[in-house]
Write a structure and sequence with these properties.
mainly alpha, 2 domains, 9 helices, 80% helix, 0% strand
């Protein structure tokens, strides 16, 4: 191979060197230029503003209705508040009875009902989590529907996780209510005898048991409220406007049952 290379070889080698250097510069510049764009993309919201407004309406309706029922004077005239008063009436009358087997059977029925809802919550959590494993299939089915809403994979998974959170909240409420009913059973077992029903100790025990009883019922009602509002949350999978309508519909049904139902009228009859 000759040691001397002509001007043509020098020019070709120079061109090759310059081309590779330009390629390296060109490939390295977009990476540096794309960095601010990547930051901007990561800070963008996952959902459009209308979805965030609908989600805010859902959360606001939930919190507002709970505050109305549990913390206002209007809520103290609802069905749940009247049943809390009957819980205390039940305990006072049970104190004057010697045979309390029926009362313990009623407590067992309340515990079984609460345990059923707690186990149902776990089943709902498992079923909702299974949707995350078939996201692509679900999105394909949703897109084929006549009123299908375009949804990305990230949006679908975020909505599904929100539904899991609601069912998990309901589970904790039902589980804690079940535990409180166990405590109430213990307090009922420690109830003074009927001969001591007029003593200060018996009166203190009645107030203590009634307070625990009301707390158990309150947590059970919160768990059921989560179940009902989960049905309204399902409307978000069909679109933000459907979420607003379904949330208002569920809250309307809950309000009617608390303040305008036949059950409330039956409890308030003299």
């Amino acid at each position: 191979m000759p040691l001397f290379r002509g001007p043509a070889s020098i020019i070709v080698n120079f061109a090759r060197t310059t081309w590779f250097r330009d390629v390296n510069i060109a490939t390295s510049r977009p990476a540096r230029a794309a960095h601010p764009l990547a930051i901007g993309q990561s800070t963008m919201s996952l959902f459009p503003p209308i979805d965030l407004v609908a989600l805010g309406c859902f959360v606001g309706a939930w919190l507002g209705y709970a505050a109305l029922v549990e913390w206002t004077s209007h809520g103290r005239d609802g069905l749940s508040a009247h049943m809390d008063r009957y819980r205390e009436v039940w305990i006072r009358r049970m104190l004057r009875r010697d045979a309390r087997m029926v009362d313990m059977q009623i407590m067992a029925a309340l515990q079984n009902g609460t345990a059923f809802f707690a186990s149902t919550s776990l089943i709902a959590i498992g079923g909702t989590l299974s949707l995350l494993r078939s996201t692509e299939d679900v999105l394909t089915v949703m897109a084929a529907l006549p009123l299908g809403v375009a949804t990305s994979r990230a949006q679908w998974e975020a909505k599904t996780i929100g539904l899991v959170i609601i069912f998990a909240y309901a589970f904790f409420k039902f589980a804690w209510s079940y535990r409180l009913y166990n405590y109430v059973s213990i307090l009922l077992g420690a109830m003074p005898f009927s001969a001591e029903c007029d003593t200060p100790e018996a009166e203190a025990h009645i107030r203590r048991t009634a307070r625990m009883f009301k707390s158990a019922g309150r947590h059970f009602n919160r768990g059921q409220r989560g179940f009902f509002l989960a049905l309204g949350y399902l409307g978000w999978f069909a679109g933000p406007y459907v979420l607003i309508v379904s949330t208002l519909a569920v809250v309307g049904v809950l309000w009617r049952r608390q303040f305008a139902s036949e059950s409330r009228k039956a409890v308030m009859e003299d």
